[in-house]
Structure prediction request, 63 residues.
Amino acid sequence: MTGWPEAMANDYVSRTSDYMLTGLGSPEGVVPSNRTRQFWSTDDQKLYINSAIGSRTGWVLVV
Prediction:
């Protein structure tokens, strides 16, 4: 990924990684799901799942 723009490299890594994504608040409309299709909101301790890899929409709150 040498020479790739940082945003492109980060997007590529997030789509192909096998770890749960984390961040603040709801991922809906913001975070593309990766292969785990899971997102943990660190500020409010909630778990979201997404049925479609690479989609920024469709996140569902689990707990």
Remarks:
- The first helix runs from residue 6 to 16.
- The longest strand covers residues 38-41.
- The chain has one domain: 6-61.
